[in-house]
Amino acid sequence: MTRVVVTGVGAITPAGIGQDLLWQRVLSGRSAVRRIDRFDAGSYRCQVAGQADAFQASDWLPGRFIKRTDRFTHLAVIAADMAKTDADLEIGGVDGADPKRVGVMVGNVLGGWGFAERELRDLWARGIREVSPYQATAWFPAAPQGNICIRLGIKGRARTFVSDRASGAYAIIHAAETIVRGQADVVIAGGTEQPLSPYAWLCCQTGGFLTSAGNTDPQAAYRPFDRAHGGTVIGEGSVFLVMESEEHARGRRAEILGELSGWAQNTDGYMPYYTSEPHGRTMGLAMTKSLRRAGITVADLGSVIADGSAVPREDAAEVLALKTALGGSARRIPITTAKAAYGHLMGSAAPADAAVALRMITHGVVPPVANLDRPAPGFDLDFVRADPREADLTHVLVVARGLGGVNACLVISRHSPARRGSTLGSHLNGGKSAHGGT
Amino acid sequence: MEVREAVLSTFGNLEFESDEIDDDTRIREDLAVDSTELTEIAIALEKTLGVVIDDGEFQQLETFGEIVKYIASARPQ
Q: In CATH, what class is B2-73?
């Protein structure tokens, strides 16, 4: 079976530009959430967010590109470019990867509303000649995908996934499946999000998952699994991974940062009052299936990066799902939620978690959940609190979920050429041979 | 000359590097302008210079010099 490895990471988040700052912020256990200053949020229930303020598009991109695209595209093309550089990946040319065998997969939830809101306001107030001709393409959720392909010279499969807050995980899973099926050698996969505009923010408020409890103390607002959890704090950012077949990575002598060894996705299909199951059984099944695909058991699992939306009913369902999936080991596997330190990045949340998981494995450290002072009643799992904890980590489970009951799980593993024996390999495939690949 | 400077200034406002443009500069080939950006240029020239531009005619223009000539002979709004 073709194995999928990660060889590069690019990250622009509220923690700063680059994956080092993301990792340092997560380790610190201190939140980068702040009061919103991109627009007047005074009339909204939630007035705090993670803002990627260090990123100024004009420092990175020409004016003619900026004028025709939204900030969610600016974030994405630079994060994808950073991932490519980190992977020391060349695309095209004599020595580079075949552009037709390189793909792009992007997760996004909202599209480019910052651009669209300005232009639609001009349309209603001043007429059609005042609307930028780029309005349609700038807003479109697939805009980052197309612009990444143009900038990096990519000519293979390109797709965008819109599956609420699990969108980025869907992109990574599809990238892995594309590689396993032999449809690409390399896929640059991740997500991007820029929710900081009046209408986009209103959509999130209407979605009912934002907290209103932290407006006077932004850094304490996002509290996954804590007794005082009251909802999510979202943020802007973009994170991309360079994923490739192990054979391709070895062929170009790339440094392998880790392996995506397992994944699974499913949907709750549930709608009394809220779109996710309160008992978390379907989510638990996704966790179990991802471990099975990785060819590991719960005993092999070193840590979990939980979704940790901090919406009380979602936190409760996730705890139940973890108890279902981890069984008797549930109380002895360290659990964290990295995003509490910078905000839930929605379309790029799971890619950010995957980047953190790679660092956790490299350094043998589980970061703490920012703001988790006292777990809510019944949340009797081994949450890592206050300080980072050393641990021998070979496999980390990443959990992503969103409205509509979408669940997606990733297993990030230390790369070991001999990790999978032939017996295990056939078990992983469910008895089926891999499609294509070598 | 006045019209040329005004057109060049409009291009500058649309993030073009003005010092890379002369009358022989080809809009599509040299400046990589696509049909959407050409529409943006036409709208900007209409608003800035107060002239009426026929979109069909404007899309046929090939060089910067041809745009200047077209604007110079365009009727006012």
A: mainly alpha
For residue A97, what are the contacts with CB-CB under 8 A and spacing of at least 6? A89, A90, A91, A185, A186, A248, A252
User: Touching check for A66 and chain B: CB below 8 Å?
Assistant: yes
Confidence (pLDDT) at A419: 60
User: Are the C-beta atoms of residues A295 and A425 closer than 8 Å to each other?
Assistant: yes
DSSP letter string, A336-356 = E-GGGGT-B-GGGHHHHHHHH
Alpha-carbon distance B44 to B10, whole Å?
A: 7
* H or E stretch at A59: none
Given CB atoms, is B59 within the 8 Å cutoff of chain A? no
B36, A137: Cβ pair inside 8 Å? yes
Alpha-carbon distance A340 to A47, whole Å? 16
In this structure, which CATH number among 1.10.10.60, 3.40.47.10, 3.40.630.40, 3.30.70.1350 belongs to the domain A4-251? 3.40.47.10
Nearest residue on chain B to A66, judged by CA atoms? B15
CATH topology for A261-428?
Peroxisomal Thiolase; Chain A, domain 1 (3.40.47)
A420 pLDDT more than 90: no
Instruction: Report how far residue B53's alpha carbon sits from residue B70's, in angstroms, rounded to the nearest whole number.
Output: 9
Instruction: Please give the C-alpha separations between residue A12 and each of A266, B24, B50, B77, in angstroms, as whole numbers.
Output: 29, 41, 43, 47
Q: Give the predicted TM-score (pTM) of the model.
A: 0.93
pLDDT at res. A434: 38
How many residues would you count in chain A?
Answer: 438
Q: Which of A21, A137, A144 is nearest to A75 (CA)?
A: A144
Q: How confident is the model at residue A271 (pLDDT cuts 50, 70, 90)?
A: confident
Number of other CB atoms surrounding residue B55 within 10 Å:
10
Rounded distance, CA A81 to CA A61, Å?
12
- For residue A49, the SS3 value is strand
Q: How far is A133 from chain B (nearest CA, A)?
A: 6
> What's the CA gap between A238 and A227, in Å, rounded?
30
Q: DSSP state, A41? A: -
Task: Compare CB distances from A132 to B15, B40, B47 and report the shortest one's residue.
Answer: B40
Contact A64 B16 (CB under 8 A): yes
pLDDT digits (tens, 9 = 90+) for A191-218: 999 999 999 999 999 999 999 999 999 9
Q: A155: helix, coil or strand?
A: coil
For A359, residues 6+ apart whose C-beta sits below 8 A from its C-beta are A19, A23, A365
Distance CA A59, CA A402 (A): 33
- The C-alpha atoms of residue A172 and residue A178 are separated, in whole angstroms, by 10
> What distance in Å separates the CA atoms of residue B77 and residue A161, rounded to the nearest whole number?
46
